[in-house]
Design goal:
about 290 residues; Helicase, Ruva Protein, domain 3; seven-stranded mixed beta sheet; two-stranded antiparallel sheet
């Protein structure tokens, strides 16, 4: 029998019960799998990192496209299944299985792209690790639709927040195909979306020397209460300010005091554009120690 998505998923589910704690919802819709690979561009002979391979439905499509795949999987049942049904690719080293938690296990250092149907409960920390370790690598991810809209800040003020602003520093984000629950087995309770993250060094392109940690701390603090104005939100220094070299509470207070008359300080967080946040962080950063 030809190895296809439905066959791989059904065979896996017959032998291994779904672990809902791991967010196991397996793609069985061939058109969605094709769309994910197409969105990744030409991956022939490229090294692709897949996170959470499960029964290998996406892995199979990546291999067919000519990619060399490193697939991370934490579930022992899924690993056993992959070893049984992808034996030839493993032996030829076209497929490398990495056992462990994708948030902590060592990632390959020579990855050309990331393509993954990621477990929804680790979406945020996974993106943080991507930005920290391999932010120059393009990615195509299947995520919850609402999460995708927050990543791309797609719906005006409503979706603006620390997640989208942090990603804006490193990526141009494109929301692709909407994926209904019926495309998975078992079906999740939410609709999903394909999202492409194309690397861009926004700070370099705008000629900014703002510390990324400063940007993230400022935006996270301000979006803790969208109804208040920045002048009130920034009076207190961020909890992790001391992790940024040269910064301490006194310097922060002096910087914020010097900005009290700036027009942006009268705004509420969700009314600011990404460039406004960069301007605020630049002004804070220019305060002398």
């Amino acid at each position: 029998m030809e190895r296809d998505a439905r066959f791989l998923v059904d065979l896996h589910r017959d032998l291994h019960p779904v672990n809902r704690e791991l967010g196991q919802h397996y793609l069985v819709d061939t058109s969605v799998l094709n769309a994910a690979v197409e969105m990744a561009g030409d991956i022939s002979s490229k090294h692709v990192l897949e996170i959470g391979c499960g029964p290998g439905s996406l892995t199979n499509h990546l291999l067919r496209a000519g990619a060399r795949v490193s697939a991370i999987e934490i579930d022992s049942g899924s690993l056993e299944h992959m070893q049984n049904h992808f034996e030839e690719e493993i032996e030829s080293e076209q497929l490398n299985l990495i056992e462990g938690d994708a948030l902590t296990v060592k990632w390959p250092t020579d990855v050309d792209a990331i393509v993954a149907n990621i477990p929804y409960q680790i979406s945020s920390p996974l993106l943080e690790r991507m930005q920290r370790e391999i932010r120059t690598v393009a990615a195509v991810l299947l995520v919850q639709e609402e999460f995708a809209e927050r990543m791309a800040m797609a719906i005006g003020p409503l979706d603006r927040g620390p997640l989208g602003l942090s990603l804006w520093l490193d990526y141009d984000i494109e929301i692709g195909r909407r994926v209904p629950a019926s495309c998975f087995s078992p079906q999740p309770r939410v609709t999903s979306c394909l999202v492409r993250l194309q690397p861009i060094d926004r700070l370099a392109s705008l000629g900014s020397a703002v510390d990324r940690r400063m940007f993230r701390q400022v935006t996270s603090q301000c979006f803790s209460d969208r109804r208040r104005k920045l002048r009130n939100l920034l009076k207190k220094s961020p909890r992790r300010l001391s992790r940024i070299p040269g910064w301490h509470r006194s310097r922060w207070q002096e910087a914020i005091h010097s900005l009290q008359e700036h027009p942006l300080m009268e705004e509420r967080p969700d009314m600011l554009e990404p460039e406004d946040w960069l301007e605020i962080c630049t002004l804070i950063s220019t305060c002398e120690a």
